[in-house]
Amino acid sequence: MPTANPPIVDTLRAELALLRSLDRDQARTMPPAFYTSADFHEIEKEELFRSEWICLGHVGEVPDNGDYFTTELVGEQLIVGRDHKGEVQVLSNVCRHRGNLVAEGRGNKRSFVCGYHAWTYDLDGTLKTAPLMKDVKAFDRKKCNLPQMKCEVWSNFIFVNLDGTAKPLAPQLAKLDAILHNYHNEERNLLFSDETVWNTNWKNLTENFMEGYHLFATHPTTLQPMTPTQLCRKVPGEDRWTAYRSYYDPNYPPRGPFHEDMTEDEQRNSVLFNIFPSFVVAVAANYTLYLCLRPAAADKVAIRWGVAGFKTDPEDPEVVKYVDLCKAFNDEDRQKLETLQRAQNTRYYAHGPLAPDDLEGTIWDFLQFMAGRLG
Ligand code: FES
Ligand SMILES: [Fe+2]
Fold first, then answer.
1. What confidence score (pLDDT) does residue 320 get?
2. Fold classification of 54-153 (topology level)
3. Do residues 24 and 355 make contact, with C-beta atoms less than 8 angstroms apart?
4. Domain 170-374 is in which class?
5. pLDDT over threshold 70, residue 191
6. What is the distance in A from the centroid of ligand 2 to the CA of 270?
7. Which ligand is closest in space to the CA of residue 232?
């Protein structure tokens, strides 16, 4: 018999369903429990993060055959690596013997050797050797490969779908591809990457990254002089994504060198997009900043982020300056999102109105996605 949902989950599902019926001019935020409830967080893990495409990182983190890094998504331990054929693979990082971790951290290997009893797996997960097991009747080598997760690389980003039910990703992003085409993200090299954890719900950060309303107040000296709130323009989104363009202040120096395909208009704006649920990216004329978000708890988000560009040298002073700028405005966002999380533990707030479409229309699109999946 199915177990009943905790009351807060039913309340939030009902609220999401209600959002579906509201017009854009009635757009409003969700109640704070949407961002604080551990019960709702469990539902998201099960119904979103296992069944959707989730970005785990950039192909530049595994440039050579044998390169790998380990990560975790809703409790699943994963190895993201490049096999002997050069294919990107996402494997379960749980040994098929007694279930220990097979790999830790990152590096380059010819095979993965579980440190517990030395079962050895090929880079595609195939079991190669299991010491002293050959006389064991119940041991069937073919049944002991590390499970391969469904994985897709789109525009240099590595996505996984844990339960294997998601429809192919790339066709769902065709229109976004067209918008990004002249920026040539696929030609940009990974120049910086890092991991961190912020004390805020993953949706707070997703929404924050995607709205230009806060730029003038939260980033008065870092972003507002470059991409002012007043010049944000919403892009019509689709089922799987939302986006806006943030235009550069006419007084700000040109952000080249520009790819030769870029139009004059494209040279003057960055495209910020969210591939639902939790992958947010800013493709500027010169650099790409991306954040892969994985929920760590109702009030914690694990962030794997990086910067890519046409330059090749991570030590190039211009690259270092841009990465420092990203660190500075990320820190400004972190402070606001951690106080937001504390404030959301309240009984005295229910809803707020969303700002006009160019400023917070992306949040409305995101909430509509959430409503479609969980409402
Ligand atoms: S748990 Fe991995 S070899 Fe035993
Ligand atoms: Fe921000």
1. 98
2. Rieske Iron-sulfur Protein (2.102.10)
3. no
4. alpha beta
5. yes
6. 14
7. 2
